[in-house]
Structures are given as structure tokens and as C-alpha cells.
Amino acid sequence: MQMSTLVESLQESLSTSQVSTNDTARELHSKDESYHPPVTPEVVVYPYDAQDISEIMKTAKQFHRSVYPFGLGSSLEGHVIPTEDGISIDFSEMNRIIEVKEQDLLVKVQPGVTRTQLNKELKKYGLFFTVDPGADATIGGMAATNASGTSSVRYGIMRDQVRDLEVVLADGSIMHTGNLAAKSSSGYNLNGLFIGSEGTLGCFTELTLNVHGIPEHIVAGRAVFPTIDKAVEAVVSTLHAGVPIARCELVDEPSVKKANEFSDTNYPIQPTLFLEFHGNEAGLNQDLEFMKEIIKDHGCKKIEFEQDNAARNKLWEARHNLAYAYVHGAPGKKMMVTDVCVPISELAEAIKHARKVVDASMFEGGIAGHVGDGNYHIILMFDSSSNEEIQAAAKLNEEIVKYALAVGGTCTGEHGVGLGKQKYQAEEHGESLFVMEKIKQALDPESRLNPFKLVQLKE
Amino acid sequence: MQMSTLVESLQESLSTSQVSTNDTARELHSKDESYHPPVTPEVVVYPYDAQDISEIMKTAKQFHRSVYPFGLGSSLEGHVIPTEDGISIDFSEMNRIIEVKEQDLLVKVQPGVTRTQLNKELKKYGLFFTVDPGADATIGGMAATNASGTSSVRYGIMRDQVRDLEVVLADGSIMHTGNLAAKSSSGYNLNGLFIGSEGTLGCFTELTLNVHGIPEHIVAGRAVFPTIDKAVEAVVSTLHAGVPIARCELVDEPSVKKANEFSDTNYPIQPTLFLEFHGNEAGLNQDLEFMKEIIKDHGCKKIEFEQDNAARNKLWEARHNLAYAYVHGAPGKKMMVTDVCVPISELAEAIKHARKVVDASMFEGGIAGHVGDGNYHIILMFDSSSNEEIQAAAKLNEEIVKYALAVGGTCTGEHGVGLGKQKYQAEEHGESLFVMEKIKQALDPESRLNPFKLVQLKE
Fold it and tell me: FAD-binding PCMH-type domain: from which residue to which, for each copy (chains A, B) (predicted)?
């Protein structure tokens, strides 16, 4: 009997058209939007369903290969980049919205569905999916990294939205992590464990998510502050007063400038909070009046409300395209985005520190972020052909991470560990990293699932 | 060298006063509020801190004993009952509120702190802890069972409130599961995994919890319906309309009667929703008007608002004491409470089914529950000296569970698995039960931590 190759075996268990060794396809699956150097996978597969993925897992085991789930490649820490010879699993053929369960405020989707695709469908029902990381990522990718974004201050992060996952494990078995009830005290919380596991424990093949009714009333606006500290203090006071902000984004001076250039807006070039409120009209008006009082005390001279839907959409487009604005403004350079999250009480000092670190560096660097959660980013453009710049950018990132850890924060608020934050896991988690390793060891003993990401098993 | 006994060793590593083999103490730690038969522990220990618990773990290992964490014994599925010779760990000496981090809306407590103790302290800061299971349970116990209760429809369950846990593992090592940031994508979600693990993966020694500002405006009331179905349909419609209800409790006719008798109220004896709303005054009034319209369409003839704080407190006291009202009305009998949770779209039918099952049984049985979450209870009093009644009660419970599982629900919405729901774990979780077993095996390979609860390792 002739032994078949890896590719032949994959073609046999899937179909020829679902398996590609084409150079373009492989190159496309070698990288994400991060600065981490690309590594080309041996082969790219395009599964249709859980059964296909189960077969891929079995073939991977038989041929001693690793698997690397790939959504749209919008990850920011190298999550999808192969670390050794292996199989890139592309979910683009698994992009069906399976069922909108309107009465339960649930939707069941395949992992390759994108955020905007989902919201377009949900709009027909007067519903929306709350998690908005800016990028039009896949739902599977957002679940794998526990994404969040602008509206998480009000509605929670990806982990809060998942009612059930269908998962294919390393051994090819297929299981569900949850059920359809709004709450449960039955068994260990596998939903929560798998969300944010970055493809290291299993592959998601179906996700059942909470959705919300589109709010009756939405108001967005911009509040301008004399300094970045004052803006941050205003957010902290507002949160503490219990005003339910739906989005609350800090954009510093250089970033407002970049946004104006890229998005053709004309916002005042000052530290600004981009804000949004959801609710019923009466309650919202009362909240807005209250908030205006609060932020006035922190030096806000002006809060400007967007007058129509188009202006509101423009505002969030400008915010969401900020990273692209930086990329666009620095052709040929690579982007590095820090992603720490600190306790709210530490936020004002942390951002002051961040500004100092940037000013002392060789980079321009803008600060922006979801300050209602204590999560902020420094966006840096660096020359990846210059060793000096690579090292300086890495040093800056490290300085920001160390500061966040020292004040009780985390090295990544929403981008995930991937390759870039691996080195901070021991410092951040201490003893609990051993528990994470034991879990990885128990579920993926041969470390075949996205190896070297998140936790790294000793050989 | 003389070998010391288990008790001597415990006395040595803790202190004499922290170790008791007194019959009364042991009897007190042999049971909870459930119908499960008591089993007496060999010894009861009263640790002061994590270090004490670490010592207890090491001694337990040395003497091949199991450990059974014990809060106040208010669990409803036998969670604290020893299943073999072992050590009951009583947390009553670990009842300090360590720190209120006002600006972060966080509080750090020891596990023996009770819910009312915590809220009394938080009130000084204008804050409150949202999870309210009715019973004045310990925070540690509530975390161990992933408790929820009346206000979870608005604020979420216990798992949603935990920012960080200090945990002592089976080997005596001490770790933290989280950090102080509002969100994180770093590492596996150990917070979520340990919450609801029922003492089977480790002992909590410190908990950092989210707290909320006391709402500006609170309105409570009772809405009376011609039938229980109509009441449930009204809840489903209200939720779907996006009205943010803070509490939403269904109490059926027999239960209103019991409440009136026990709590000296005079509520109309009809299927009733006990309701509460939190918000700013303007928003809340608009919500109330909207809700009144909705529930009128479902046959609600009257919604009566409580006019002052005393009447509001009375309302919730009556609801929370409902279980005790049943116990009080059936001296000598034991209580069994079902605890399924179903998808909201299935709730009306499920409660109709529950009523039929009760009517066909030999028991009276009241239905009450947190219907905003799809979680409802049948409260049954049965004679635990009668085999016939024991079997009939167990059969009824099973019928309710099987129904819930068949419609995508869970066998326990908030009470936990303990001893009583162990037998449904395979049916509910399918393949994922193997993953739970692997996790238990990885973290507690000798099955020393609350063995035979939640998952049961094969010998």
C-alpha cells in the first residue's frame, strides 16, 4: 500500500477544491495586520462544517502537523501566523448566519461570518450585535481573541455575549460548551474558557450569541478638553456617577489630526472624547444634562452633538479608521499598537505616563482608546527594516506593559496574547499560568492547536 | 518518631482553637438546606487566611482525606455535605471586607462575608452588590455555585461580577485568577472557570467583585394577571421590547397565598409579577408607561406600585421568604426546589408543563422564579420518612429537568449541581463532560476537593 501525503489525505477527506498549496493562498495566510514576521503555512484548507474540521484534526494528528485557524487576518498579535509547518484553516466558506432566534435575542452563526455581515442581517429584525472592535473581523476570530471595542463599556466584551459554542477538539471530537438558557450553574464554564483561547484548545464551528434591540434613541457627540488628563478624569467621574455611556473613546491631539486628514473631518485639534448614549429619549436627556455638568467641572468647554445619522456614522468611521489613518500616513512602515488595560482609578496617571514614554521615544505615536474600560492604545509606526526602530518600538511596548502590570492591570485588554504578549504571561499570571498550562496539556497534549500562542508547553 | 494523627497535624499547622471534633460542630457541618441526607465530617477547621488553607490542603494530602468547603450551609443541592471521611472547612473566621475601591467600583472581601454584611458596608459609599439570591449566603458560597437571583435579569449573575479570585489549589499553592482591569484578553479565563466550580478545583480565599452605584430612582410594584401563562407572556414581550427590568419575579396563586400567611401581606391571590425598575427618574417613568401598555395587552388589569421604601422592602422580603413560608407551613417535612432554566421563547410552555406535572403529583407545590432569565422553581414539601414521597418528589424533579434539557435549557439555573444534579450532567453536557473531567483530573488528580460533586472522576 502506498502512503499518501498530507495534501492527498486532506483532499481525500475534504475535496480537492477545499485544499490549496497555491503560493498566493499560502502567502495570504502567512500574516495578519500585526508587525510580526510572516511564516508561510504548508497548506491552506477551506472547511464547510464541523465534520470537515474534525477530519482536518485527525489528518493533522496522523501527519504530526499543527493547525492554525484563520478568520480574516485582522488580528494584531500574530494569532494566525504559523509557528511551524502546518495547516492554515480558513473559515471563509463557513460564513452562514444559521438562525436568528428573535424572541430569545439570540443568533446562531458560523465562525466566518463578519461583524458587518451579521449586523446587516440583524437590522431586519431591529436587532444588533454589540461588540464592535472597529475592524470588520470574523465572529470566530473575535471570539477566539475575546475582542471588545468601543461599545463594551455599556454592553460587555465578547465573552459576555456567547451563549453556546460548537467546538472541534484536538482529537476531532465535536462538543457544545453551553446551552440556550440565559444562565446556568451546571458544570464548569466552558463557554468562558474557550472564548479568548485563541485557537489553542479547539476550533469554533458554530457560535450562539446574545443580540440586543437597536436602542430607541441614540445620541453621539464630541467633548473637547484642554488636556488629555482632564478628559480622562471626566470619564472616571462620569462612570462613577453611574451615567450609562454606550461608547466613550479618547482621541489625543495627534490622533484627531490624523483622523481629520484621513477621514475628511474637521474636528477641533484638541484632546477629545467621542461619546455615544443609548436609551429612551427622556432618560437619555436627563443623563446628558447630568454628564454635561460633570464634564464641565473637568474643564470641558464644549460638547458638540452630531445632528444626524450621517454625522454620527462619520464620527465612528473616523474613530474606527484611526489605525488605518496612521498606516496611510506612514507608507512602508509597520504598525505596532499597545493594548494595556488598567483599573479605572489608575487610568489618568497611566495615560500621563504613556504620553511621557512616547514623547521620550523616537516615534510620533498617537494615544486612543476605550477609556471607559481603562483600555488604551498607543499607535506607533516604525520601520521594520531598521533594527534600531524595531528594538525601540518593542522597548516602548514593554515599558507600557510593565507599568500596567505594576498597577494591577493586564498586558492586553482586547487584542489577545498571540505571539506578541507571550513573554508577559508569566509576569502577569504568576502561579495561575501553571493552571493554564495544565488545561492546555489536558486538552491538547501534543500541542497541535495554534502552538506557541497564549501558553507554551515545555517540550 | 511517633506518627501524629490528622487532628494533631491540623492543630499543629493551624492552632488548637481552629480545629474541632466536637459533635455539635460536626453535626452542623453535615448538612445544608437541601433534602440530601446529612453525612458527618471527621473534623471541622476554621482557617484565618490563605496560608491556613494551604496547610489544610497539604495535611489533607498527607492523610489521604478530602476537603469540603462550608460557607453558611444555605446551599440547596448538598454542596457542603461530605461524601467520605474528611475535613469540613468553615469560612466563618474569614469574614472581613478587606477594601472598598470606590473609584474602581470594586470591593475585595474574604469568602465568609455574607451578602447583607457586604451591602451594609457598601451603603456607606452609595454602592451595592447586585447579586441577590434571597438567602443571606456567603460571598464565597455564592461564587462557588455561580449564584444569581432576583436582580440578575438586569445586572448579571455571580460569574459576571468577579474581577479576581485568590484561590488555594489542591497542592496547596496559592494563585490569582484575574486582575483589577475591567477587561482582559490575556490567558485563559480562570475567573469564569473557578466561579461555579463548587469547591472542586480550589478554595477561594479572597474575591474582588464589581459593585454598582445605588440607583438614583427605584420603583417596585406588583402586576396581577388572570393566568400564569399571561404573566409569562407579558414578561417575554417586555424583555423583547427592551425595557430594562431590574427584578421580575413570577409568583403563582398558591405561593402568593403562602407569602400572605407567612409575611403578613395582603396581596391579591392571583398569578403576580413582582417587579422593580432602576434608573433616572425621567427614563424610568417613560419605561414604566411603555411597560404598562405592553402588559395590558397580556391581560394585566392592575399594576400596583409600592408607595414607600417600607412597602418595597416588604415586597421583596415576602418574595425572598417564600421558601421559608413553605417550610414553615409543613412542619417536619423536607423541601425540594427544582431549578431549571429554559430559553425565554420556551418559558410560557415550560411553566404550563410544570403546572400540569405538579397538579398530577401528590404534592401541592408552588411555582416561583426569576422569569426574566427563564429560571423558575417548583417548591415542594415532602415527607422524607416516606419512600413513596421521596420517589415521587425525585420523579417530579426529573420530569422538569428532562423537559428543560429537551428545549435547550439547563438542569440548574442558579443552585448548582452538588449531589442532586450530578445524574443529569452526562445528558446535559454530552461530549463536553469529558472536557470537564479532564480539567478536574488536571487540577485535582487525587479528587480530594469536594469529591463526587459536579464531575465525578472514574476511579
Answer: 36-214
Count Cβ atoms within 10 A of the Cβ of residue B383 and give its class: 0-12 exposed, 13-18 middle, 19 or more buried: middle
Q: A280 and A251 in one domain?
A: yes
Which among A421, A431, A435 is the nearest to B186, CB-wise?
Answer: A421
Domain boundary (A166, A193, A213) is at: A213
Q: What ipTM does the predicted assembly reach?
A: 0.96
Of the pLDDT bands very low, low, confident and very high (cuts 50, 70, 90), residue B240 is confident
Same domain, B234 and B182: no
What is the CA B57 to chain-centroid distance, rounded? 26
The minimum CA-CA distance between A291 and chain B, rounded to whole Å, is: 13
Interatomic CA distance for residues B179 and B445, integer angstroms: 27
**Closest by Cβ to A413, choosing from B181, B375, B430:** B181
Write down the pLDDT at residue B241.
87
**Within its chain, how far is the Cα of B321 from the centroid?**
15
Residue A393 has pLDDT above 80, yes or no: yes
Question: Closest Cα of chain B to A105: distance in Å?
Answer: 8
- Which of B76, B158, B169, B185 to mutate to probe the A interface, most A CBs <10 Å? B185
Whichever domain contains A136, its CATH number is 3.30.465.10
pLDDT band at A160 (very low <50, low <70, confident <90, very high): very high
| Residue A442: pLDDT over 90 | yes
pLDDT for A72: 96
Residues A183, A187, A192, A196: what is their CA dihedral angle, to the nearest 10 degrees? -160
Q: Specify whether A317 is located in the same domain as A224.
A: yes
Is there a domain that residue B407 lies in? yes
CATH of the domain at B224: 3.30.70.2190
Q: CB-based contact (8 Å) between A190 and chain B?
A: yes
- The answer on A381 and A353 residing in a single domain is yes
The total number of structural domains that make up chain A: 4
Across the interface, do B101 and A343 touch by the CB < 8 Å criterion?
yes
Residues A193 and A112 occupy one common structural domain: yes
Q: What is the pLDDT of residues B71-117, one digit of tens each?
A: 999 999 999 999 988 999 999 999 999 999 999 999 999 999 999 99
Q: Is A313 on the interface with B (CB under 8 A)?
A: no
In a domain, B132, yes or no: yes
- Residue B414 near chain A (CB below 8 Å): yes
C-alpha distance from B454 to closest chain A C-alpha (Å): 6
Yes or no, beta carbons of B430 and A169 under 8 Å apart: no
Contacts of A104 in chain B (CB under 8 A): 343-345
Q: Which of A158, A186, A213 is the last residue of a domain?
A: A213
A121: closest CA among A94, A102, A103, A149?
A102
Residue A234 resides in a domain:
yes
| CATH code for the domain in which residue B41 is found | 3.30.43.10
The answer to whether position B428 is within a domain reads no
Between positions 334 and 393 of B, the ones with CB within 8 A of A are 339, 341-345, 373-375
| Out of B174, B239, B431, closest to residue A431 by CB | B174
Q: Which three cell numbers stand for residue B128?
A: 451595592
Domain range for B221: 217-324
Is a pLDDT exceeding 70 seen at residue A2?
A: no
B18 with B113, same domain: the answer is no
